Amino acid sequence: MSDNSTVSRRQFISGAGLVAIGATAAHFGSFLSNAEAKGGSTEKWPWPYVKLDPAITAEIAYEEWYRLFCGGAVVSSVFGQLREKIGEPYKSFPIDAFIFLEGGVSGWGTICGSNAGANIVTNLIIGPRIANSDDGALMGSEMLQWYCDASMPVYTPKKPRVTAEIPKTTSDSPLCHVSVGKWMKAAGKELKSPERKDRCARVTASVAYHLVELLNAWKDGKYETKGIIPSANYGITAQNNCTECHGSNIPSPPIAKATGK
Q1: Where on the phi/psi map is residue 127: left (φ > 0), alpha (ψ -120 to 50), or beta?
Q2: Quick check: 228 and 141 in contact, CB under 8 A?
Q3: Rounded-to-integer distance, Cα 163 and Cα 23, Å
Q4: How many degrees, rounded to 5, is the angle at CA 78 between CA 76 and CA 79?
Q5: d(Cα 78, Cα 85) in Å, to the nearest integer?
Q6: Which residues are within 8 A (CB) of 4 and not within 5 positions of it... i.e. 6 or more apart?
Q7: Is 115 exposed, middle or buried, given 0-12, 13-18 or 19+ CB atoms closer than 10 A?
């Protein structure tokens, strides 16, 4: 072969890479086209909503906690039903990807995953503030405040996996670390205990129940938000209950009982 007809290894790999990128782009484009053809693009929001039964949603969230944990379970309890009732764009939404919200986002104890999941739902369904329209962030903020104030868990599943009594606690904080920590102290149970796990499953169900109550009121045109954006008061991103985590109130795990081993 002459030099003009020789294809270098680098050129070949580069060309192959471009072909692969082109194929991937074509596949992704096809994915979006299919979503659009079936009723809407995942890139366009807000998304359609039909009223759901809060109790059914809570039961789904409770069971889904044992598969996807708090945040993913809230998203699944709402979007899973809307997949069946509406179709796209919900069918193309990767619900299971939100398993990372477990334990306050990848186990870091920040915002409780159920709160994060609820905000994902409100913002995709209600959307951003436009002129004087409703704002998904404000409903999300209302959910955060409700979580802080409620004696949790509010909802009791029809067929609980743990039949022992589950104490109720008020977190006064949207944070996983504080919410779970206060409950562990009150219950005297460790993080890996069946009771703690079922408590969080029930809290997730409680959040899903109240979330659908608010969404249904919004759908009926009867919703008036109680949500606020705290930074408007503080001049910095913040929450209204900082002392629940700062200072001497930081929760610590209960001392493990001696096993005699």
Answers
A1: left
A2: yes
A3: 53
A4: 65
A5: 11
A6: none
A7: buried
Share of the chain above pLDDT 90, in %: 64
Q: Which amino acid is at 191?
A: L
Higher pLDDT, 44 or 222: 222
pLDDT at 44: 80
Q: Check whether 55 has a pLDDT greater than 60.
A: yes
**Residue whose tokens read 């008036």:** 224
Residue 261 has pLDDT above 90, yes or no: no
Tens digit of pLDDT for each residue in 120-143?
Answer: 999 999 988 764 566 898 999 999
- Residue 37 is predicted with a pLDDT of 47
Strands (E), the chain: 151-152, 169-170
Flag whether the pTM goes above 0.90.
no
Q: CA-to-CA distance for 23 and 60, rounded, in angstroms? A: 38
Q: Which two tokens stand for residue 256?
A: 């493990």
| 196: CB partners within 8 A, 6+ apart | 180, 183, 184, 187, 189, 190
- Mean pLDDT across the chain: 83
Question: In degrees rounded to 5, what are phi and psi of residue 134?
Answer: -65, 160
Non-local CB neighbours of 123 within 8 Å, separated by 6+ positions: 45, 136, 137, 140
Buried b (16+ CB within 10 A) or exposed e, 7-42: eeeeeeeeeeeeeeeeeeeeeeeeeeeebbeeebbb
